[in-house]
Amino acid sequence: MKPHPGNLVWVFAMILALAGWLVASRPSPPDAAAVKAVADTRQMLREQGFKTDLVDFDFSAIPELQARETILQNTTRSLNRDQYDNLPNLMQPIGNDSALVVWKLDSVKLARLGSRNDNEALSWDVFRALSNPNSNQIDAVAAAVMSGPIRFNLKVRPDGSLRLPHLALVRNLTKTFVRRSVLALHDGDLESAWTNLMAATRLVTAREPEPVETSHLVRFADTSLAFNALWQALQTTRWSDVRLTQLQREWESVDFFTNLPTTKAFQRVSVIARCEQERAESSNAGQGYIEFAETILRFPLYAWMTLSERQQVVSYNQRQSFQDEQALMLYFRDRETEFRNAVKATNWTAMRQSPAMTHVPPSSFGHPSRFGLYVSLYDKKFPFQRDEQSLLARAAQAEAQRRIIITAIALERFHIQRDSYPKTLIELTPEFLGTPLPDFMDGQPLRYRLTDDGPFLLYSVGLDCVDNGGKIRRRAEDIGFERPAHPGALLPEADLVWPLPAGAAAMQAKQQIRTEARKVEAKAKESEQKHYLTEISGREWNQSPARQARVAKILAMKRPVGYPEPTFKGQSAGNLIRNAKVSGTNELSLDALLTPKQIITGKEPEDITFELPISYDSFITNNIVFPIVDADPEEELPFDCGGKVYDRERATNGDCLLIWHAIYDPPGRHAVQVYLALKDEREGTLYGIGPPIAVTTSNLCQFSLDSANYDVERGATFHARLPEKNGLYSIECVSTNGEHLKTLTGSTKNGEFKIVWNLVDDQGRRLNGETFNSIMHITLPDSGRTQTLRGP
Question: Which of 399, 594, 596, 754 could form a disulfide with 610 if both were Cys (CB 3.0 to 4.6 A apart)?
Answer without folding.
Answer: 596
